[in-house]
Automatic annotation (TrEMBL):
<feature type="transmembrane region" description="Helical">
    <location>
        <begin position="60"/>
        <end position="80"/>
    </location>
</feature>
<keyword id="KW-0472">Membrane</keyword>
<keyword id="KW-0812">Transmembrane</keyword>
<feature type="transmembrane region" description="Helical">
    <location>
        <begin position="87"/>
        <end position="108"/>
    </location>
</feature>
<feature type="transmembrane region" description="Helical">
    <location>
        <begin position="114"/>
        <end position="138"/>
    </location>
</feature>
<protein>
    <submittedName>
        <fullName>YitT family protein</fullName>
    </submittedName>
</protein>
<dbReference type="InterPro" id="IPR038750">
    <property type="entry name" value="YczE/YyaS-like"/>
</dbReference>
<feature type="transmembrane region" description="Helical">
    <location>
        <begin position="169"/>
        <end position="192"/>
    </location>
</feature>
<dbReference type="Pfam" id="PF19700">
    <property type="entry name" value="DUF6198"/>
</dbReference>
<keyword id="KW-1133">Transmembrane helix</keyword>
<feature type="transmembrane region" description="Helical">
    <location>
        <begin position="21"/>
        <end position="40"/>
    </location>
</feature>
Length: 227
């Protein structure tokens, strides 16, 4: 009887633990899309991949959220030759962020004047830090872009800093040439997102559960955030 009670309690603990992780994952991904939309509405510059998404959207007529989904899927295909292993969070990242982004842009109108744009920029960057901490701490696998970075780091032996910087320079330049928004917000994001994400990653850290927990293909969060 005691063993049965212990087993039942252990099962409840694992179930609650998994529920929390799933909640963090999808809340984090949704907030990430919201934060990216706020950066778009600020008109003061986007995060590196956002510059690329916006540039492609300008050229194709697709919404920036749809472009984000397409680019995420294409980047995920690049995981095949570098033998990266996706998790639930990886696949969810491809779709959830783009959907949340387009939904937010449909609700939040364009703003004019720095008095309105600056709060949107600051709020977008802060919310992005919260969102990044939430979904990475859930440990369901890195997003397609972060996984590409860690995969290239493992394959080439180059530092995370060098691989990340190289990727983001290529992405920003390509996006800017296509018409993406590059500005003070891009610089502010680059300077602030590392410390913010590291802080919220610790704040939202989920304690380890039983060994029976399913494998999710998660990459070390420190490798993703280390810059």
């Amino acid at each position: 009887m005691r063993r049965s009670t212990t087993t039942r309690q252990g099962g409840i603990h694992v179930s609650t633990h998994l529920t929390r992780r799933l909640l963090q994952l999808y809340v984090g991904l949704t907030l990430y899309g919201v934060s990216s939309a706020l950066l778009v509405r600020s008109g003061l510059g986007l995060e590196p991949w956002g510059v690329l998404h916006q540039g492609i959207a300008e050229r194709t007529g697709l919404t920036i959220g749809v472009v984000s989904i397409i680019v995420g899927a294409l980047v995920l295909l690049l995981w095949i030759p570098i033998r990266q292993r996706p998790g639930l969070g990886t696949v969810s990242n491809v779709f959830a962020i783009g959907i949340a982004m387009d939904a937010t842009l449909a609700l939040v109108p364009e703003v004019h004047g720095l008095a309105a744009r600056i709060p949107l920029l600051v709020g977008g960057i802060l919310l992005n830090g919260v969102a990044t901490g939430l979904y990475i701490a859930a440990r369901f696998g890195p997003g397609p872009r972060d996984g590409l970075m860690t995969g290239l780091h493992r394959l080439t032996g180059r530092s995370i800093r060098l691989v990340r910087t190289s990727l983001e320079v290529v992405v920003v330049v390509t996006g800017f040439l296509l018409g993406g928004s590059l500005g003070v917000g891009t610089v502010a994001y680059a300077l602030a997102i590392g410390p913010l994400a590291q802080f919220f990653l610790r704040y939202f850290a989920v304690p380890e559960a039983a060994p029976a927990e399913p494998v999710t293909g998660a990459a070390p969060a420190q490798a993703i955030l280390r810059g």
